[in-house]
Specification:
Elements lengths: L1 H43 L4 H24 L4 H24 L6 H23 L11 H7 L5 H6 L1 H50 L3 H9 L3 H48 L1 H22 L3 H8 L7 H9 L1 H12 L1 H4 L2 E2 L5 H9 L4 H14 L4 E2 L5 H13 L3 H4 L1 H9 L19 E13 L2 E12 L5 E8 L5 E8 L10 E5 H13 L5 E5 L4 E9 L14 E10 L5 E2 L2 E6 L1 E2 L5 E4 L2 E3 L3 H6 L5 E2 L10 E5 L3 E7 L12 E6 L9 H14 L5 E6 L8 E3 L18 H12 L6 E6 L20 E5 L9 H10 L2 E3 L2 H13 L4 E5 L2 E7 L4 H13 L7 H13 L6 H15 L6 E5 L3 H11 L31 H27 L1
Parallel strand pairs: 1-2, 3-13, 3-14, 19-20, 19-22, 22-23, 23-24
Antiparallel strand pairs: 3-4, 4-10, 5-9, 5-12, 6-10, 7-27, 8-9, 8-27, 11-16, 14-15, 17-18, 18-26, 20-21, 25-26
Length: 966
């Protein structure tokens, strides 16, 4: 009897001492200091809700279990221990693992976690209500007492028989879980036991050396006496109890669950017979193991194998395309493996390090233990290497013809948000269509000047998050338009705007990215195609929910451009893509002096109308501008009758066969049918079919022999790669024009390679389905230098080619309803005098000169020069003089002298025009691998680390409290 009383006392002491110590630390220390900031951060959106809920569950488990233990088992010490080791300890450990180790769950890891949670719930039901079948089949006194407790309403609804079968199934799994978890914990129990014993002896020795006195006095010195006298002793008690419990837990946990499963099995067998009990248990276990085995097949293994070598024919390509979903799943799993798995199998070495280096086991024995551990932990380990991340990203782009972060944005975002990793401030691919910055108001004003107009777009942005954000637009304007300004301000006061500087494109990009990294205000406006532009502004001031400040709360942006009148009116910017910004029915819009109201889907999707009607409708007239240096640009309006189709010419057509073109297969068919019917009979048209890796490009001598319906669209191709294939395949053939038929190709997959591409004939890129967001500079240079352009169908491209040729050799381009021509006046004394007279005559046409300057730069880009940098500087000088954005000159808004000095230094470099491709791909910081270690600290080092951690926590919490009070 006395021994029983001793054990009862031990059981009660363990339960109450551990729980009361833990609850004291939580409710008296952590919650008052961290709780309120955590709630505020969750409301602000800076901390995912899942983390707060998991933290709440971690705190709630000991609280609820303590209450239940006090109410139901206070007079049953043995049951109190069963409750602690069978419910509270494993559930608490599960919450900690989910909070600190497990990130995004996979199907395999979800099965394990769900099974453990189910078994814990089943064990708690068994403790609280006993066997759910007939009460006469109860096996022992405790079950008999618990069986008279009122059952939950759910079990009453499904009936006694179903409840018994359900309980049998759960407790059958409990045996499996008990064996698995106990075995897994044993790997740590032995080292922890030895470390705890060694640490205790080390602590006793250090105590009598009094080396701890000085740190404790320092804590008193800095006012941390509460931590010194209360929290550090409590923390050591909690730590010591946890270590000792962890040593006992494997055997006790396994025993409790196996015993509980056996007990329920016998109760069920007594009621329904051993055969049914055996069949039911084995059936559940077999089904669970079958599911487990199926989920162990990680999808990346098959996906990486299938894409290991490029397909050599169309049959293999079509087979792979049919398995696109499986390949997508595998590549995404490999890319996100650092977020979905604790470690790779090869990098998981911590068990080996513990047993080899700390316990001095032989190398072979330690590795055997590690291998057996890997087997048990297989649902949480990635079957591959860390190099698979980059490999999967590359293969995804090559197979799906788009950047992985863009093609599977939701999957990537969910994985990132499953950790505490913060996104970058720059708007990347993960921010496409994100609603972080609200467009509060938008105002468009138009000042008509006959055949051209000045347009101003004024927008006000309000951040909806507690983090600095970047606004990002891809948009297009008519090819003849000239962007003339961009400004930033904290208010709508025009006198306080930060003005722009026209700078070489490479220098402007370099300074902008540096300033964003340093969290300083810049804005950057670039031209990245004949019609395409990119606008970025940073930082949009953070939203402040709980703090008041005199700082800015919104950002104001102005953008101006000049545009020629078209039959539809004045062209507005056409949005290609936006990041971070959104608008809705509450956005105030004023367009051309009139308030505009949108609602529903239209309010969320409409940025600007495509055109604004022109007030004046007089006939279009010819325009001319005399620019410095004797350069004359003329614009002649064209009627429909002025457009023609080519005759007697020789053309090359390059067909893009990349994966994304499959979405435009109907457009491909229609355009080639138009080509055969309207061009091929009067011109020689050769076809070059570009191909992704694995198959060579093909040459079709007459386009009329081509069947568009038989093309297999596969892989990815950059425009410059298609041009390289064309130059290699054409040999010595020459053409009057070259047409590259593609789609809105993935700009994000472009790179900074600058292959030597010489296309003597004008190069026209025909983009079916719409223009791409932009081009890399190497491709853009080929288009500009060759005198080509961009179009959205073959008819438009052919008409512009033929009409340009018919308009004379001085014609720069035929675009937007005008024929633009360039002439240079010889600078003799007589012509200089004539130019001086002509200049005043054009004074009334000053507003047209920026538009003319854009065409002058287009003309200069076609001229051959032995010194490319000198030519770029000359074109930049024109852009700077007339304050316009060009493919070579960008506008950057700077707010302080340090930024201006930085820009000045960048402009002096020889690479000032070298611009990098801005893919938008975010460099995600990979979570740490908790199962990979380079070495294991000695026991005394662990103890010192624990003391240091407690001290740091004391200082941190004290500073946090002081900050909140302040």
């Amino acid at each position: 009897m006395k021994i029983q009383q001793v054990f009862d006392g031990v059981f009660k002491t363990i339960f109450w001492l551990w729980n009361l110590t833990f609850l004291s630390i939580v409710y008296l220390g952590i919650l008052p200091i961290i709780g309120v900031p955590l709630i505020m951060a969750t409301i602000d959106g800076s901390i995912p809700l899942e983390f707060s809920l998991t933290m709440a569950a971690t705190i709630a488990v000991p609280t609820v279990c303590t209450v239940i233990g006090a109410r139901r088992f206070s007079k049953q010490p043995l049951q109190l221990m069963r409750w602690f080791y069978g419910v509270e300890a494993p559930l608490f450990l599960l919450c900690l693992l989910r909070l600190f180790l497990l990130r995004e769950l996979t199907p395999a890891s979800s099965q394990i976690i769900a099974t453990i949670a189910l078994c814990i719930a089943a064990f708690s039901v068994e403790m609280l209500y006993g066997y759910l079948g007939r009460k006469e089949n109860v096996q022992n006194i405790f079950d008999f007492q618990n069986s008279h407790n009122k059952q939950p309403h759910f079990f009453s609804l499904i009936g006694e028989k179903r409840s018994a079968w359900l309980q049998l199934g759960c407790h059958s799994l409990m045996v499996v879980v008990g064996i698995w978890a106990a075995t897994l914990l044993i790997y740590y129990a032995l080292p922890v036991a030895l470390y705890t014993l060694y640490g205790f002896l080390f602590l006793v020795i250090q105590f009598f050396k009094f080396t701890w006195v000085s740190p404790f006095l320092e804590m008193f010195k800095y006012g941390a006496w509460v931590w010194t006298l209360i929290w550090i002793p409590l923390s050591f008690i909690l730590f010591s109890l946890t270590c000792s419990l962890f040593v006992i837990m494997p055997s006790l946990y396994g025993f409790l669950y196996i015993h509980s499963g056996r007990k329920i099995w016998h109760s069920f067998a007594a009621e329904y017979g051993k055969n049914k009990a055996l069949i039911g248990s084995l059936g559940v276990i077999t089904a669970w193991l079958a599911i487990f085995s199926a989920l162990q097949q990680q999808p990346q293994v098959a996906a990486l194998k299938m894409l290991a070598t490029p397909p050599a024919n169309d049959t293999v390509r079509q087979t792979l395309l049919a398995k696109s979903d499986m390949i997508r799943s595998g590549l995404v799993n490999a890319y996100l493996s650092p977020y979905r798995y604790l470690s790779t199998v090869g990098e998981n070495n911590h068990i080996y390090e513990i047993y080899k280096n700390s316990l001095n086991w032989p190398d072979g024995a330690a590795q055997t233990v590690q291998n057996s551990y890997n087997f048990l932990m297989s649902p949480f380990l990635y079957q591959g290497s860390s190099a698979d991340v980059e490999k999967a990203e590359k293969l995804y782009g090559e197979f799906f013809d788009t950047e992985l972060q863009k093609g599977d944005t939701e999957a990537v975002k969910h994985a990132v948000q499953s950790t505490s990793n913060q996104e970058e401030a720059k708007a990347g691919l993960l921010n496409v269509s994100e609603e972080k910055v609200w467009l509060q108001s938008q105002e468009v004003t138009v000042k008509e000047n006959g055949d051209w107009a000045d347009v101003q777009l004024y927008e006000v942005y309000k951040n909806q998050t507690p983090n600095l954000q970047e606004v990002f637009y891809y948009f297009s304007l008519p090819e003849s338009a000239a962007v003339t300004g961009v400004w930033l301000a904290d208010t709508g006061d025009l006198n306080k705007r930060f003005v722009f500087t026209v700078s070489p494109r490479g220098a402007a990009q370099q300074v902008y990215n540096q300033q964003v990294a340093e969290r300083v205000d810049p804005a950057l406006l670039e031209q990245i195609g004949p019609k395409q532009y990119r606008l970025r502004a940073f930082p949009i001031p953070v939203k402040r929910e709980f703090t008041q400040t005199d700082g800015p709360t919104e950002m104001h942006l102005w953008l101006t451009y000049k545009v020629m009148r078209q039959p539809q009116g004045w062209a507005m910017p056409v949005l290609a893509e936006k990041r971070n910004i959104f608008w809705n029915q509450n956005t105030r819009r004023t367009i051309a002096g009139k308030e505009v109201k949108y609602s529903g889907k239209e309010a969320r999707e409409t940025w600007l109308p495509p055109f604004l009607p022109a007030v004046a409708q007089q006939p279009l007239t010819a325009q001319q501008a005399v620019l410095p240096g004797g350069n004359i640009i003329s614009a002649k309006p064209l009627a429909d009758a002025n457009y023609s189709l080519p005759q007697g010419k020789k053309f090359a057509v390059i067909l893009d066969t990349s994966r994304s073109m499959a979405a435009e297969s109907k457009e491909v068919k229609d355009n080639f049918e138009w080509l055969k019917a309207n061009t091929a009979s009067k011109n020689a048209v050769d076809l070059y079919i570009a191909s992704a890796a694995g198959m060579p490009p093909k040459f079709v001598e007459d386009v009329r022999n081509f069947d568009a319906e038989k093309v297999t669209f596969y892989g990815t191709l950059q425009l410059k790669d298609m041009l390289q294939q064309f130059t290699q395949l054409r040999g010595d053939k020459s053409y009057d024009s070259v047409f590259l038929v593609s789609d809105r190709h993935s700009y994000e997959l472009s790179d900074d390679r600058k292959p030597k591409l010489f296309i003597s004939a004008p190069l026209w890129t025909v983009h079916l389905g719409g223009l791409p967001p932009g081009y890399d500079d190497a491709t853009l240079k080929v288009i500009q230098d060759s005198g080509g352009g961009v179009a959205t169908d073959m008819k438009e491209a052919m008409q512009r080619v033929a009409t340009t040729a018919a308009s004379g050799p001085s014609t720069v381009s035929v675009v937007d309803g005008y024929a633009w021509s360039y002439a240079k006046t010889p600078q003799s004394k007589k012509t200089a005098k004539s130019a001086a007279v002509a200049e005043p005559k054009n004074a009334g046409n000053e507003g047209f000169k920026p538009i003319a300057a854009r065409q002058l730069i287009t003309a200069l880009s076609k001229q051959k020069s032995s010194n490319q940098l000198t030519q770029l500087d000359a074109m930049h000088a024109v852009a700077k003089n007339f304050k316009v954005v060009t493919p070579y000159s960008s506008m950057i808004v700077l707010v302080n002298d340090a930024q201006r000095e930085q820009l000045k230094a960048a402009e002096a470099k020889s690479d000032r025009f070298d611009r990098e491709v801005e893919s938008g791909k975010e460099q995600l910081s990979k979570p740490n691998n908790p199962l990979n270690v380079s070495g294991v600290p000695e026991p005394e080092e662990w103890l010192l680390l624990a003391v240091g951690a407690i001290g740091l926590l004391a200082v941190f919490l004290r500073q946090r409290r002081a900050k909140m009070v302040g």
